[in-house]
Write a structure and sequence with these properties.
Pfam families: ROK
Family: Belongs to the ROK (NagC/XylR) family.
Number of helices: 9
CATH class of the largest domain: Alpha Beta
Largest sheet: 5 strands, mixed
Order of helices and strands: EEEHEEEHEHEEEHHHHEHEH
Shape: globular
Protein name: ROK family protein
Radius of gyration: 20 Å
Low-confidence stretches: 311-318
CATH superfamily of the largest domain: ATPase, nucleotide binding domain
InterPro entries: ATPase_NBD, ROK, ROK_cs
Strand content: 15-25%
Length: 318
């Protein structure tokens, strides 16, 4: 019997994943359902209940002593509610109460998905051994989370570290969030592709206009593709440097689909960081690709639950 066993949910606009995770971060059982993102809130909750039902059918379920949830946001851990941008049926949806009701009153820990990935990278991944870190997800959106003083820092509502909505261009494009010139508006995958297309980049015969296709073109030397990634890298560097200046992080970990561009992103990012992280106490800041892959959300949600549970014995949990 695993003494440290928790259930974890990773809830996004595409899929709802669930797992039983032990105190060493091993996934013992996993399941998932597609997110019925365009349906009403109860239908979405039905998919969550199916995932929990699968987990409850495992012989190990009896040992689970808490549930960690990493959800697309915004989330509000103070009220236990979620309002994911890409799940319109959930607005101030009482997710924590609903999960508690179907799991016999187990303790539930709710954090945003960027914070969950941060917890995973700090516990098992690229930020391991770093007491002060920023972890970012750069994909369709740009999210993130913070580790400060060796502990996950979700903030009161579970959204701290949401670097995608730091403004880095005062006169920049309006962002759907309502502000201007946000990191996300410049550095997310769709915005990298949008800017490359507007500048004159043309996709190949397959018509692929994703950021991955732009990265391939940049690797082949297409100037518009290169320029769009350089602009994204500059926005990320400005946001990372601002964060480092504010709270003294020493590593920034970057994951998500856009990070798979590898040197097309990381080379200009490291160059730009030298221009923005200029004060003595941020000059040693390093940037590293994330290591945890697609299980990061589940492992991080588990880390949050293990950490929050009062009788945890797992060492070094985010």
């Amino acid at each position: 019997m695993h003494t440290d066993l928790v259930a974890a949910l990773d809830i996004g606009g595409t899929k709802i994943a669930g797992a039983l995770v032990d105190g060493d971060g091993r996934i013992l059982q996993r399941t998932q359902r597609p997110t019925p993102a365009q349906e009403d809130g109860d239908t979405v909750m039905g998919a969550v209940e199916e995932v929990l039902g699968d987990l409850a059918g495992s012989p190990s379920w009896a040992g689970a002593r808490a549930i960690g949830i990493g959800s697309a946001g915004p989330v509000d851990a103070t009220t236990g509610t979620v309002s994911p941008v890409n799940v319109p049926g959930w607005r101030d949806f009482p997710l924590v109460d609903r999960v508690r009701a179907v799991t016999g009153g187990l303790p539930v820990e709710l954090i945003g998905d960027g914070v969950a990935i941060t917890a995973a990278e700090h516990w098992q991944g690229a930020a391991r051994g770093h007491d002060n870190a920023l972890c970012m997800v750069v994909s369709t959106g740009v999210g993130g989370g913070l580790v400060l003083g060796g502990r996950l820092h979700p903030g009161p509502t579970g959204n701290a570290g949401h670097i995608g909505h730091i403004s880095v261009d005062l006169d920049g494009d309006p962002c759907p969030c309502g502000a201007r010139g946000c990191v996300e508006r410049i550095a997310s995958g769709p915005n990298i592709a949008r800017r490359a297309l507007a500048a004159g980049w043309r996709p190949g015969p397959d018509g692929d206009t994703s950021a991955a296709a732009v990265a391939t073109a940049a690797r082949a030397g297409d100037p518009h593709a290169v320029a769009s990634f350089e602009r994204a890298a500059q926005a990320l560097a400005a946001g990372i440097a601002a964060t480092a200046t504010l709270v003294e992080i020493d590593i920034a970990v970057i994951g998500g689909g856009v990070a798979r561009a590898q040197d097309v992103l990381f080379a200009p990012l490291r160059r730009a960081l030298r221009d923005y992280a200029t004060l003595s106490f941020v000059q040693r800041l390093t940037v590293a690709p994330a290591l945890m892959g697609t299980d990061a959300g589940l492992v991080g949600a588990a880390a949050a639950a293990l950490h929050a549970a009062p009788d945890t014995t797992a060492a070094g949990v985010g």
